What does this fold into?
Amino acid sequence: MKTKSFITAGAFLCLSLHVSAQKAVSLNTIKTFKIGGNEDGWDYLAVNPKNNLLYVSHGTRVNILNKTTGESIGEIEGTEGVHGIAFLPNSDKGFITCGKLNTVKIFNTETNKVTAEIPVGKNPDAVFYESFTKKIIVCNGGSNNLSIIDPETNTVIKTIDAGGKPETAVSDGRGKIFVNIEDKNEIIVIDAAAHFTVTHHWGLDKEEGPSGLAVDSKTNRLFSTCDKMLVILDSETGNLIKKIPIGDHCDGVVFDDKTNTIYTSNGEGNISVIQEKNGGQFIVLKNTITKKGARTIALDHSTHMLYLPTADFDEKEKDSRGRPKVKAGTFQVLAVKTPLK
It folds into this structure.
């Protein structure tokens, strides 16, 4: 991803966005769940509404935690290159994308045992349950496509050419699926009711590296996190609504539909907080400090809690990618209480 200047973004904001000025509000990190382990890789995490447990991707395993206390409940091992976790509603079925295995593993949420393994595309990444079609959607970042899984038969029923690297996807619940295409700097629209056909390619007004994606189905707004910028589009037309500067190294965004609040997880060490007053007015609230590396995020819709995985870093040592090295045994999840309820 390319880095853009905060000065440029700020000038654009002042001249053309008319976003309300920041108001003093804060989020409070109320707990740090220490997990440990030597693997330095992590990505998504998710709360299972059925059993109220928190599932955290971590190297070659998924850690399962009590979402309130952080107590370890168990692990699901053998998930090399794990990225995402999703759940089939009102069932005991969970789905894990294993990027290094090019498979999705199905597990039982009661026993934590893997029950099936489905070959998909290369480097499966984000995964979610799509409520309109009742299917599991998998973004395959290495093969530039999406796998559609029927959870009743545990089979891939369709593979969709995304035309680029699909980073993450969301649904409006009415038959439209939206996918961030990271290397093309666009969002593609898939009509799920028309045999999962790609119908549109929407640009992001020259912003780059779309990663996190969320949707407000009530106001028909898409929230795509690009490099230091939140791009808001009309989910019906693809028209640009607003652009709002956010923190750096963001890899996730969630929308709380009860409080109409957008939270972006910025790996530089903070959360950008934006409240949606209506489809055209957004109030930028004060950022909250988290920790460096906390770049992905999960929202518990029942409690309004936010969860972000990270670790401690040794700034003097670099890993194979030239980044600060993760200190062994410091993997953790931040549990953040939101004030807007």
